[in-house]
Amino acid sequence: MAKFGFIYTFNSEWEEIKETVKDSLESSIDSVIIPRITDEQLTMIKKLGKINIISKNSNSDMLLLDNEDISEKIDENIELLSNLKKENSKKIAVLIKIMSKNDEIMASELSKSGLIDYVILEGKDWNIIPLENLIADLFNTKIEIVSLVKNLKDAEVAYEILEKGVDGVALMSEDINEIKKFSELIVTFNSPKLKMDIATIKKVEPVGSGDRVCIDTCSMLNIGEGMLIGSYSKALFLVHAESVENQYVATRPFRVNAGPVHAYVLCPNNKTKYLSDLKAGDKVLAVSSKGETREVIVGRVKIEKRPLYLIEAEYKGEIIRTILQNAETIRLVSEKGKDISVLDLKEGDKIIVKTEDKARHFGMSIEETIIEK
């Protein structure tokens, strides 16, 4: 499951709240915890941009309870939460200060009640032991575990505890630079590194014309970076972005000239989509020659009829294939991480691909025998 982040502020004055909300929006963090906020302030926040507000105000996007609201008796807390659920359908977050073992037990019991959606944990002197215990205890539940931290170092540790880590982190900060670095940290944890494979080119030949898809993203793609695309869901080729200087046309570093409409592209959470299904607002994975990944947003998809090349390669004795446009600007990536034009490809060249043993059904990896040829 993807990691997420909140920004937490103690401020109740509008000018301070406004700056925190603006900094969060500019850093692509879409949720802010503001325990005490007025209806007027909520209205003004909505004019700044679309962002989720978590607070004690019943008109906020998510309701917040903390140690001031809950008692030491679990039965009383269950009754309180049950009444809240009856009154509205909003999600509920409970912030618990872990001062003793009893607080840890209360956090566990409330999390297992099915009446709250997020449990936010704050330590007296931040340490990982209560988080370790609760992550292990709540491993098979649907509760989202959030750690309240004061700095980036503690945020990184929280995301990594017991390998699984907490689901989210609430950062107590009003420093725009730290908030931006926090956003980058979240992206890093949500960008798994892939193990890339090497295949050997066996054939490159023209096959006629077809409908080709260009993926224009909302990001600038780097040299050595592209997308994993192919005719087979179990074998995708690293197709380089149009970020390489050439004598024919200007670079389009936001674009990957991906292939024909039937081909697959790798998306977040190890899912694939047909190129023909992509549209503005979808997310796909940008992948480097080293297997580093990041989510990028599709700005538009452009489909045009173009001459096409069939690319055949061998990987562990099996032939894998994809189809790309017949043009000098269309490039794969060599085993050394260098871009290579499809017009320059020849038998014996080594290129980067990504293979997997499982088949796919509706873009999801499954245990099933499927023959692709």
UniProtKB/TrEMBL annotation:
<dbReference type="GO" id="GO:0102042">
    <property type="term" value="F:dehydroquinate synthase activity"/>
</dbReference>
<dbReference type="InterPro" id="IPR030960">
    <property type="entry name" value="DHQS/DOIS_N"/>
</dbReference>
<comment type="function">
    <text>Catalyzes the oxidative deamination and cyclization of 2-amino-3,7-dideoxy-D-threo-hept-6-ulosonic acid (ADH) to yield 3-dehydroquinate (DHQ), which is fed into the canonical shikimic pathway of aromatic amino acid biosynthesis.</text>
</comment>
<feature type="domain" description="3-dehydroquinate synthase C-terminal">
    <location>
        <begin position="199"/>
        <end position="373"/>
    </location>
</feature>
<keyword id="KW-0028">Amino-acid biosynthesis</keyword>
<keyword id="KW-0520">NAD</keyword>
<feature type="domain" description="3-dehydroquinate synthase N-terminal">
    <location>
        <begin position="3"/>
        <end position="185"/>
    </location>
</feature>
<dbReference type="Pfam" id="PF26558">
    <property type="entry name" value="DHQS_2nd"/>
</dbReference>
<keyword id="KW-0057">Aromatic amino acid biosynthesis</keyword>
<dbReference type="Pfam" id="PF01959">
    <property type="entry name" value="DHQS"/>
</dbReference>
<dbReference type="InterPro" id="IPR056179">
    <property type="entry name" value="DHQS_C"/>
</dbReference>
<protein>
    <recommendedName>
        <fullName>3-dehydroquinate synthase</fullName>
        <ecNumber>1.4.1.24</ecNumber>
    </recommendedName>
</protein>
<comment type="similarity">
    <text>Belongs to the archaeal-type DHQ synthase family.</text>
</comment>
<keyword id="KW-0560">Oxidoreductase</keyword>
<dbReference type="InterPro" id="IPR002812">
    <property type="entry name" value="DHQS"/>
</dbReference>
